[in-house]
Amino acid sequence: MPTYKIAVLAGDGIGQEVTPEAQRVLEVVGKATGASFEFEPGLAGGAAIDATGGPLPESSLRLCEQSDAILFGAVGGPRWDTLPQESRPERGLLRIRKELDLFANLRPAKCFPMLVDASPLKRSVVEGTDLMVVRELTGGLYFGEPRGREEFADGSERAVNTMAYTSREIERVVRAAFDVAMKRKRRLASVDKANVLVVSQLWREVVTRVARDYPQVAVEHVLVDNCAMALVNRPTQFDTIVTENTFGDILSDEAAILAGSMGMLPSASLGGRVGLYEPVHGTAPDIAGKGLANPIAAILSAAMLLRYSLDRGPDADRVEAAVLRVLEQGHRTGDIAAGGQKTVGTREMGDLIAREVERAY
Ligand code: IPM
Ligand code: MG
Predict the structure, then answer these.
(1) 3-11/187-192 β-pairing
(2) Residue nearest (by alpha carbon) to ligand 1 atom 11
(3) What is the pLDDT of residues 119-165, one digit of tens each?
């Protein structure tokens, strides 16, 4: 029976609360199948800053590099908001993405039928939404050089970030997106700002070139402003979306609303040898420490870990089905409850799902 080494970087805020629930679900899978999971905790984000002075100790990076997969929570919080850019909690996560070459970030957004009314958007708009955002994760404005600030003699300042992509960087994420589209409805929307940005012109050329290798996939080019509108107007028109780092950051938060709540969205970051799995939501300082957070995004991220890093698709299917069953039974955390509906906390939702996973074997 295989043994899997999983690095667990829970991070800050509700990351500390939802990650143990995802870990518990993997333990249940292990028990049912005979696979063994070795969980190794590591520091990241604000928690790491408090303990070591920096957002990602070398020991955490080594741990990630030596694992089969990484279960990540969330990083950041008001306590560290005044730190300079380079030492903020978020830097820890960006460093892992870059060092492990996790250039393809998969963010599925699905509107589950029983949660249609949890979305602030109309039922007629969100019903049937099932899309996958493939976000480039190691380039663009997040990492481009030059970056920084300069001060002029008169005391005024200038700040710079650079959106830069090589054709290789574009091609590898675009190929990843075509591969994803091939396993879905074979429709790919490439999102750019080619009417203004030269980076986007290159992006569009590369997509058009790669598309020749995937004649079965219907490709369209969508401008990012138009895409932002279409996502809340006619989201069902999308199947797979591929876009650069910053556009993907923004559009994937928008897509979360289609799924009812940020608390529902998992993600997988792939490309290098070790994949990283994290809920799309952040640390939610307003509810942190209260046991109220929705663990479903973290648990669905664990399902993605099973599917993409451990090649255990059938186990991932069971976890996803267990989540659906618990929702069908009417259980809700606060973020996905419709008016008047009774709610459960993080632990209880985790318990309910773990029990359903156990039953699935
Ligand atoms: C995300 C987050 C991160 C990002 C932050 C925490 C650095 O918003 O994963 O979407 O901007 O990529
Ligand atoms: Mg984001």
Answers:
(1) unpaired
(2) 249
(3) 899 999 999 999 999 999 999 999 999 999 999 999 999 999 999 99
What pTM was estimated for this model as a whole?
0.96
Ligand 1 pocket mutation, candidates 72, 134, 161, 249, criterion most atoms within 8 A of CB: 249
Read off the pLDDT of residues 85-104 as tens digits, 9 standing for 90 and up.
Answer: 889 999 999 999 999 999 99
Catalytic residue among 193, 308, 315, 335: 193
pLDDT band per the 50, 70, 90 thresholds, residue 339: confident
Burial class of 334 by CB neighbour count within 10 A (0 to 12, 13 to 18, 19+): middle
Give the residue whose CA is nearest to atom 5 of ligand 1: 90
Decide yes or no: CATH 1.10.150 for domain 120-139+165-259.
no
Q: Secondary structure of 181-218 in the HEC alphabet?
A: HHHCCCEEEEEECCCCCHHHHHHHHHHHHHHCCCCCCE
Centre of ligand 1 from the C-alpha of residue 274, in Å:
19
Q: Which fold has domain 1-110+261-361?
A: Isopropylmalate Dehydrogenase (3.40.718)
> Domain residue spans in the chain?
1-110+261-361, 120-139+165-259
Q: Is 249 a residue of the active site?
A: yes
The pLDDT value given to residue 338: 83
9 C-beta closer than 6 A to ligand 1: no
User: Ligand 1 in contact with 12 (CB < 6 A)?
Assistant: no
CA of 90 to the centre of ligand 1 (A): 7
Residue pair 279/74 in contact by the 8 Å Cβ criterion: yes
